[in-house]
Specification:
The complex is a heterodimer of chains A (about 130) and B (about 130). Chain A is mostly helical. Chain A is built from 4 helices and no strands. The mean pLDDT of chain B is about 90. Chain B has a single domain, classed as Fumarate reductase/succinate dehydrogenase, transmembrane subunit (3 helical TM bundles of succinate and fumarate reductases). Helices cover about 80% and strands about 0% of the residues of chain B. Chain B has about 130 residues and is mainly alpha-helical. Chain B starts with 5 loop residues before the first helix and ends with a helix. The relative contact order of chain B is 0.10. Chain B contains 5 helices and no strands. The chains are: A mainly alpha (about 130), B mainly alpha (about 130).
Chain lengths: ~130, ~130
């Protein structure tokens, strides 16, 4: 029988925050957000199969001020999860485990994903293709 | 030195049974999602995919190569999403709700995947109803 009151190993509350665990939890949070985005993608593509009214209804929400803010958030989540996912795949094949390297690639992921987010929106809002 | 008893070897009990498959498929879908999501992001940012109207969205989705890539994207993305949500539920949800959550998430992802693929097929083969 498991004792639910048993002492647990070092938990989040006593863990010293640093870039590595911060980015790790951010990977999970962005992944969770993107899961909701996958359902939103489904809703969008379904609306395009159903009717113009339905499509316009979905797009009215997504392209409202609040909708665009949400989309901006999704954009960062996407680029971050993509870049950090590649960092994870590197670890999976045993590359980049050195502490100094992991910190550097972590900072690079934040910088690159932020730049890609801002760049994408600059192109979209500026209408330059 | 072997720590496992002959009995445990025969019974085949232990932690590593199906977890490897989950881990591996998560990586396979991750790698496939790199080109698929980058293609979709490019389509959005370059405005090759014009969201503004029902007709323009359908025109993009309905082209054979686009439809094919979108089906692959929808399937892979929702599969990867399901694997990720499963881990999140397993980590944070306890008691009977855990099983309910795992099953609900699986059903929801399968339903979304079928809806997305069905929608893409309908758009690419059928006239507007």
């Amino acid at each position: 029988m498991q004792n639910p009151d048993r002492p647990l190993s070092p938990h989040l509350s006593v863990y010293r925050w640093q870039i590595s665990n911060g980015l790790s939890i951010l990977h999970r949070i962005t992944g969770f957000v993107l899961a909701t985005g996958a359902f939103l993608f489904t809703l969008w593509i379904l609306s395009a199969a159903v009717s113009a009214d339905y499509y316009d209804g979905v797009m009215a929400v997504l392209s409202s001020g609040f909708g665009l803010l949400i989309m901006f958030g999704y954009t960062f989540c996407f680029y971050y999860h993509l870049c950090n996912g590649i960092r994870h795949l590197g670890w999976d094949v045993g590359k980049g485990f050195e502490k100094a390297t992991a910190v550097k690639t972590g900072i690079a992921v934040v910088v690159v994903s932020s730049a890609l987010t801002l760049g994408s929106w600059a192109v979209l809002m500026g209408g330059v293709a | 030195m072997k720590y496992r008893t002959p009995l445990s070897n025969v019974l085949g009990l232990g932690s590593s049974k199906t977890g490897v498959h989950h881990w591996w498929v998560q990586r396979l879908t991750a790698v496939a999602l790199i080109p698929l999501t980058l293609w979709f992001a490019y389509a959005v940012v370059s405005q090759g995919l014009d969201f503004s109207s029902f007709e323009s969205a359908r025109e993009f989705i309905g082209q054979p190569i686009h439809a094919l890539l979108l089906i692959l994207l929808a399937f892979t993305m929702l599969h990867h999403s399901q694997l990720g949500i499963q881990v999140v539920v397993e980590d944070y949800v306890h008691g009977p709700l855990k099983v309910v959550g795992l099953i609900a998430s699986k059903y929801a992802h399968i339903a979304a995947g079928v809806a997305a693929i069905y929608s893409i097929v309908v758009i690419s083969v059928g006239p507007v109803s």
